[in-house]
């Protein structure tokens, strides 16, 4: 940014007091032309000076509320901020056309060069000892690294998921010849970063982790992943986790270590992962199994349930519906407003987001 004469500022999550006040004043006065931050920049006390462009990364972690908040901050000074929204989570085309109907969408559906497909198998936890032997062989004989993913941090009486800390202790006893690390969301950032760096540099053979490794981890030498209790995670999250392996040129494997018995739905979902490495195929199957509300995660205002339509039944006419809706919104705003007030009175503001 300095090359172009632009001043930018980062917005750390834990910044407080005078430092935060000084940054707010610099942003409001226009001294700063670019702001990089988290949800903190949506706060009411943060005022911009001519907000014209908003880039949101990992859109699936944001809601329509945040999009609207930034749009309104630009509106206060007569601007209509452009929005570029990115997500690594594949979304079925029909769902994207309804949930993000106001946005032009582009899809990057090819793997980066050098990536290899991941072979996925589902194995009951009664064969846990076999999987431990497989980890030993991969890390010693083959010289590879592995992930062991758990879904909870501490033991719970309510959930039967294996806790990462308990699994770490178990694997240290079962695999004394391996260097095993542990990482989870409750660790201090510096501690977590140190463990991840050690794994990336090859100092650790096996990394026991929670789903904090879902994104932002790139270790090409890691070719084996075990995911405990996969039936407790969504298909999109499982696909994201599986993407931590297969980042090098060697054959990679993902083991879904489930607890029997599985429900019919859980069996279908795990079969989808076994059958495909294509995120969009997986997302479409997830839509068919769970429906749009579940697929998008926590329900967000603006992602209203349909009154008449059914995404699966009506997917052939969705493009035409989108075209007609855009036409009415642009050419007949009064009629569009009347339709919104009639069918979605609580969400009328979101037609602007």
From TrEMBL:
Q: What EC class is this? A: isomerase
The Gene Ontology terms for molecular function here are: 3'-5' DNA helicase activity; ATP binding; ATP hydrolysis activity; DNA binding
What's one GO BP annotation on this UniProt entry? DNA recombination
Location of the Helicase C-terminal domain = 142-288
**UniProt keyword annotation of Nucleotide-binding present:** yes
Output the SMART domains linked to this UniProt entry.
HELICc
Enzyme nomenclature, EC number: 5.6.2.4
Q: Which UniProt keywords apply?
A: ATP-binding, DNA damage, DNA recombination, DNA repair, DNA-binding, Helicase, Hydrolase, Isomerase, Nucleotide-binding
Q: Which Pfam families match?
A: DEAD, Helicase_C, RecG_dom3_C
Reactions mediated catalytically: ATP + H2O = ADP + phosphate + H(+); Couples ATP hydrolysis with the unwinding of duplex DNA by translocating in the 3'-5' direction
Question: What is this protein called in UniProt?
Answer: ATP-dependent DNA helicase RecG
The organism encoding this protein is Salmonella enterica I
């Amino acid at each position: 940014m300095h090359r172009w004469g632009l001043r930018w500022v980062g917005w750390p999550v834990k910044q407080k007091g005078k430092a935060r006040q000084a940054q707010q004043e610099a942003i409001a006065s226009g001294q700063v032309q670019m702001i990089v931050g988290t949800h903190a920049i949506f706060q009411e006390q943060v005022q911009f000076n001519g907000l014209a462009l908003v880039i949101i990364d990992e859109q699936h972690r944001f809601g329509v509320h945040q999009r609207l908040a930034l749009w309104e901050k630009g509106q206060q000074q007569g601007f209509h901020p452009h929005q570029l929204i990115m997500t690594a989570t594949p979304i079925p085309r029909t769902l994207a056309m309804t949930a993000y109907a106001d946005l032009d969408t582009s899809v990057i559906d090819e793997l980066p060069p050098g990536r290899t497909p991941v072979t996925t198998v589902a194995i009951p936890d009664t064969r846990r000892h076999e999987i431990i032997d497989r980890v030993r062989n991969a890390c010693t004989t083959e010289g590879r690294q592995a992930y062991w993913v758990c879904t909870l941090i501490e033991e719970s009486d309510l959930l039967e998921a294996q806790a990462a800390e308990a699994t770490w202790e178990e694997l240290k006893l079962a695999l004394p010849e391996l260097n095993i690390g542990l990482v989870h969301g409750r660790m201090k950032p510096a501690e977590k970063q140190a463990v991840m760096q050690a794994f990336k540099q090859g100092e650790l053979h096996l990394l026991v982790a929670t789903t904090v490794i879902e994104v932002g981890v790139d270790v090409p030498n890691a070719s084996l992943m075990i995911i405990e209790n996969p039936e407790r995670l969504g298909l999109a999250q499982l696909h994201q986790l599986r993407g931590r392996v297969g980042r090098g040129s060697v054959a990679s494997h993902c083991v879904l270590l489930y607890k029997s018995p599985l429900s019919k739905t859980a069996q279908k979902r795990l079969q989808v992962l076994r059958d495909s490495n294509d995120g969009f195929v997986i997302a479409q199957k997830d839509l068919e199994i769970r429906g749009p509300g579940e697929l998008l995660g926590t329900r967000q205002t603006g992602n209203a349930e349909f009154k008449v339509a059914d995404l699966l039944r009506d997917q052939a006419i969705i493009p035409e519906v989108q075209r007609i809706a855009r036409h009415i919104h642009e050419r007949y705003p009064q009629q569009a407003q009347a339709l919104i007030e009639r069918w979605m009175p609580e969400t009328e503001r979101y037609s602007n987001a």
